[in-house]
Write a structure and sequence with these properties.
Length: 322
């Protein structure tokens, strides 16, 4: 069922159904967080690795307090950034919240009125991003309809995600905050607003199950470059490569798309972005458009230094892994 009625979607959720709904970051595919069977259906629909836990979405701080242990630092972070694009991993108080058998659970209050209205009616909703596992997250209603019509029990038609990028995930279950995933709130912004230091385990140990999986990858081959090369330069580079590999390929039909701050010979497949914020909220749309247009070669310009650079780098690197 596709509807703009929060009540209808809420009754589907309460009856154990799976729904897709927008938040301000990306679309989520959700089920009642206390219904294990329903939560497990999400893994099948997304083809998600079974040890990667889901973010549980709440309508209010009080609802989180009823279900989780909130250390002082979490209280301050919630006061400063909730509702919003910050997810906190906390120790569970309510054992029946689904989190892949862990003692911890990732919690977030979305800054999207209809999403919060829904969760206020149903109770906590476990919802990862609504996209096939390993693919870019979806941020447009049209992409959601193409992918999920007939596969889920309900789709909520409401304001589309405005950020276009997932939440930042911090682990608070072990004391000091640890960054588990970069996202649409910059690490330095959090640090300076609270006067705290966030640890980054990114290259050392895997603390979050989601960190070990390939992500955000389009079908085409992704190259990251300091400046965007012209189409002629890209074709010449590809020719050289296949010459080295002794392959003979027809380059006349090679489908190429580029995203960057400046593109001299721009085509309709290319996307020019203005700044890092624009880059961050455009990257998934661009990568999905590449798949829809069967793009084979994708060039992405390096982000500028500064705010959101870490998040954009993270997604570009993961998208470029084949
Ligand atoms: P998504 O798949 O977009 O919903 O992303 C959720 C992210 O949060 C993934 O990287 C998960 O591995 C991570 N996550 C969720 N729950 C936990 C948890 N209890 N402990 C650590 N990481 C978690
Ligand atoms: Mg995801």
């Amino acid at each position: 069922m596709i509807t703009d009625s929060v009540d209808e979607i809420a009754s589907i959720v309460k009856n154990g159904g799976i729904v897709v709904f927008p938040t301000e970051t990306v679309y989520g595919i959700g089920a009642l967080a206390t219904n294990k069977e329903s939560c497990l259906r999400i893994y099948k629909i997304k083809n998600r690795p079974s040890d990667n836990p889901l973010i549980v979405h709440f309508a209010s701080k009080q609802q989180i307090k009823n279900n989780c242990i909130i250390p002082k630092i979490a209280e301050s972070l919630l006061n400063e950034f909730s509702p919003g694009a910050l997810t906190l991993v906390l120790n569970k108080k309510n054992e029946s919240l689904f989190s892949c058998g862990l003692d911890t659970v990732a919690v977030r209050i979305p800054n999207h009125t209809k999403a919060r209205e829904l969760i206020a009616l149903t109770g906590p909703i476990a919802a990862p991003s609504a996209n096939p596992s390993g693919k870019p997250s979806y941020t447009r209603f049209e992409d959601i309809l193409n992918e999920f019509s007939g596969k889920v029990d309900g789709i909520l038609q409401a304001e589309e995600p405005s950020f276009g990028m997932e939440s930042t995930v911090l682990d608070l279950s072990k004391g000091n905050p640890i960054l588990l995933r970069t996202g649409s709130i910059d690490q330095k912004t959090i640090e300076s607003r609270l006067g705290i230091k966030i640890e980054s385990p990114m290259n050392s140990e895997i603390l979050s199950p989601g960190m070990k999986y390939r992500h955000y990858a389009p079908n085409g081959k992704v190259f990251i470059s300091k400046y965007i090369p012209s189409l002629n330069e890209i074709i010449a580079m590809q020719k050289q490569k296949s010459k080295n590999q002794l392959k003979s390929i027809d380059y006349s039909n090679l489908v190429i798309a580029r995203i960057g701050f400046s593109i001299d010979d721009k085509t309709s497949l290319d996307r020019v972005i203005e700044n890092n914020l624009d880059y961050m909220s455009s990257i998934y749309k661009f990568l999905l458009d590449c798949d829809n247009s069967k793009v084979e070669i994708i060039y992405c310009q390096e982000p500028n230094d500064g705010e959101f650079a870490d998040t954009i780098w993270d997604r570009l690197k993961k998208a470029s892994l084949q």
